[in-house]
Amino acid sequence: MNVSHPEMTPEIRAYYNALKARNELTRSDVSIFPSFTDLILPYRVICRQRYHLAGVKQRRQFLKEISVQEALQTRALSGVRVHREFCNPIINPPVPEEIVTLTREERRHLESVLVRKY
Fold it and tell me: Which InterPro entries does the UniProt record give (predicted)?
């Protein structure tokens, strides 16, 4: 005897029929459609969800504050500059090929140029 349920895929139907053939559906712990009403998530899963949601919330808040700062700029170019400086590295992280890496000698030379007072 086959069972026809609208949510049953062929794999579930085959599994159900196999259980029925072995008389395992009479056990109380067997269920094709389990109930998750008594499901208790582990605390680490709850913490991970909270951590993720806090990150999403902080990112939205940051982007909202940046858009307010962009709107407060007196010139459009200044607003674009604010957006480029703060949002682009966060929304689209830089490609590793675009990151400039300096040798120790180049870094020392750059520091000496930046320290000079013209």
Answer: DUF4790
